[in-house]
Amino acid sequence: MGASMALAQTSAVGTALLAGATADGTPTANTAAGLLAYTSRSNAAIYGSTQRFARSLIVSPDQWANIMSYNNNGIPLFQAYQPSNQTGLVTGQSQIGLVAGLNFYVDNSGVITGTGDGSMVVVEPNSYTWYESPNYRLDVNKPSDGTVEISINSYGAIATKIGAGARKFNFT
């Protein structure tokens, strides 16, 4: 039940981010150069609008696979553990990492999907706040027939505090 509730909360946040994100004005290919151009433009645009630096990149599982495959003459760009070629760290064993100076997260809610438009979102996290009730209860009721009812109660909402704090990928 807790995992289902967390998935619902993640879905709500992802839906709000995609709905409120500004589309990048330049269509971009799914290449290493395209990724770096998109994140650079997005970071500059977010800073220009919010006076804050973007710190996060949220991608779909399909984009995660693309990013792990980017290479320079066969040397992985985002899986290289040696400083000589490391532009970040993204591995197949983790849904978090670092890409072009941005904290990297893979969306597991199914909201951010595919490899096309909206499959990546650069975010300035302080532009959004997730509010959750302090009541996280587990209630166990034993009615006279011997059944057990269990419930987890939590209420949440996302608020956009600064507009233009997210930019979504615009695929060619």
Explained architecture:
- The protein has 172 residues and is α+β, with helices and mostly antiparallel strands.
- The chain has one domain: 2-Layer Sandwich (hypothetical protein PF0899 fold).
- The protein has three helices and 13 strands.
- The protein has a seven-stranded mixed β-sheet, sandwiched between helices. A two-stranded antiparallel sheet has the order 3-4.
- The longest helix has 19 residues.
- The protein is globular.
- The model has no long low-confidence stretch (mean pLDDT 87).
Order of strands across the main sheet: 1-13-8-2-7-6-5
The H/E string reads HEHEHEEEEEEEEEEE
Largest β-sheet summary:
7 strands, mixed
Distance between the termini: 40 Å
- Uncertain regions: pLDDT < 50 for 5+ in a row? none
| Shape, per Cα inertia axes | globular
**What's the tally of helices?**
3
For the record, the count of structural domains works out to: 1
The CATH top-level class label: Alpha Beta
As a percent range, the share of helical residues equals: 25-40%
Provide the CATH architecture.
Answer: 2-Layer Sandwich
Beta strand %? 25-35%
Compute the gyration radius: what is it? 19 Å
What is the CATH third-level topology name? Answer: hypothetical protein PF0899 fold
Number of strands: 13
Tell me the structural class: alpha+beta
